[in-house]
């Protein structure tokens, strides 16, 4: 049936709800009764309007967008994962797709939630369930959700689908961490997206899609508004069509061209991963005269290395800059489209899979290490006194600056002034943070960045430049390491595959007997390579064995059992939100394509102004130490920035992100899925009273300090909410992980003397060598035993500086004569066995 339904069909009644759980962007909400089925929906309505920028968190869409829901009558008390839904999608230019993200009680981010995509084709509405575990294109979903179409209508510019969705608020993709929305909580978040660019093959429900360009966002659904007494009758309505595009759909695969590995070439050191750990390692090892190959999975990022990512409007065209290079564009990674081809697609957390790794996509905050971070967290040989030289070398090569604009001025300091006034009133001291790295108790500072010459700088602009000047240094981009090829405990090389066009494929070897492999692929990347190389807990190695890796995985006789993936940590983030009339939001989102002309001109001509600073007006940074009842002192760091969060809109708002760092004792775990993707399966936060006490007490202190500022309003927590209640009620769930993490993940291959093969917690020894191997090392965030005071990248570079010294000081392996000992639990010597003796060792 085709009727003209869609432009005036939805009547938004006057029932509006004031509850805002998280993000709530809808032009209006109301009720609509579908005349054909008689089903009454509670509808979220995005009105007809022009999309600006990339349409993120839009309340309008070209042609409009509507999504309605009806829930079982008892949904407010009995959890249901089923609902009856209605999508009214737009095809304003005759084509496109629309989608729903089935959110959770805490959020509806694209990753980790079931998506329903739909579009008209040949008089039918085609539907497809998808999901995405990363900031990447969604792939077909094979969980238990099913959809039954109850009614469809299509005209030239719009279409309507009424459907019954079962198990749609239960995320149970096989091999992934499951989660669900609970209707009895009273409210949840849903997401939407729409595109007027057609899917690649509109006749195929599992067709690849092009990213949404006609609006996207999130809105709150109040359960009490959507429950319907007649739901059970409607749920029995006869299907007009049953979806066919779920379980059988295959993920689209793209073929990349690869280069063959030159025969006969070996390297003294192969470093895997060109990030904060890998780049300085490759530099130091090549400086010592060894032949070094640095293998990086992703493409170039900074223009200096051939990167090409620039705003579509062209304002960086013709410059030696990509967005990665411009400090003010650092938040691009979080914007719609910004993570494509940049963020790692094989982990559920944000990580940079480009040259530079995290140091290419981060905000560049750069800290002279607090000596306590080494003393409290690290073992002997890695204490503050041992690390002093390494830290000093890092700060000398990359001094950083807290005045990044080249005219020496600080821009947009209203937020800094407001917060620092309150802290000053309460007796906190103003410091230059990197001059006094140990002063992290009741101090505040302007933010230091690794930026230099008004550009990102960091390891890519220093260590990589010196490495690249040596003939014994080689770098392969676009090449992903699948696994370490090993002969018992001795790594002979690496199996690699092209990740993008031009990457290498095959096996690349280290120098026979004396060659070494350094894994610096990051907290998730290194753990993944170890798992795929048969090194880790047995349950994880078994998952790999059941995956597509199974037939070629190293035999289980040679597995090395170590607690890889455990000890996972990240700064727990707890956002506080304030508002003050003097604070002004700068439109960083618009800056991507339509920057303020004066600001972009000043930046391009002289590297001055807001674009020389990180978005969104970060500062002040402030710190407090809390001595908790369990006797442990815990470190808190606050990053203040000018933007809203926790449902508070940007404008005059500031978010103060509290990070719980050094001293926190909760730990989590990362595991691997059958799709060989990494997931945070145990959250590392607030598992004990001490950790919670530190978070709560420090919030109380900050609220009290800032309440001394005239005209300042605390929005989150509101004035009638205690810090303890605020923390207790802020969801600490997998679904809300995006709000609680800080992207400082570390710890999955811990350094220590308690050998993990015999029940200890350590994966690498004090020389960063993986237990049970003689030439396989880990040097990146993975080896950190615990969180530092601050953002970690400068400390990771210091760890690389120190590790390089320790590794270079080790004597070279020698081949063990035939029948000589070359393995065993207590064996620390060479594992290069000669002859045919290849027995596994326990
Ligand atoms: C959005 C964001 C903002 C941040 N902000 C800050 C900040 O302001 N200040 C700060 O100090 N820290 C910040 N951090 C954290 C910091 O950047 C990371 O802790 C740090 O980069 C981790 O260093 P790493 O060497 O362990 O790994 P990474 O820097 O992530 O490097 C790992 C590299 O390995 C590559 N790789 C992965 N798998 C493979 C494989 N199989 N084969 C080959 N290569 C592989 C990756 O592509 C990547 O280049 C931020 C992180 C993120 C994600």
Automatic annotation (TrEMBL):
Domain Glucose-methanol-choline oxidoreductase N-terminal: 352-375
Stored Pfam families: CDH-cyt (PF16010), GMC_oxred_C (PF05199), GMC_oxred_N (PF00732)
Designated name of the protein: Cellobiose dehydrogenase protein
Xref: PANTHER family: CELLOBIOSE DEHYDROGENASE (AFU_ORTHOLOGUE AFUA_2G17620), DEHYDROGENASE, PUTATIVE-RELATED
Gene3D superfamilies in alphabetical order: Cellobiose dehydrogenase, cytochrome domain, Cholesterol Oxidase, domain 2, FAD/NAD(P)-binding domain
Any one GO molecular function term: oxidoreductase activity, acting on CH-OH group of donors
This protein's UniProt keywords: FAD, Flavoprotein, Signal
Family label: Belongs to the GMC oxidoreductase family.
Coiled-coil residues: none
CDD domains: CDH_like_cytochrome
PROSITE patterns: GMC_OXRED_1
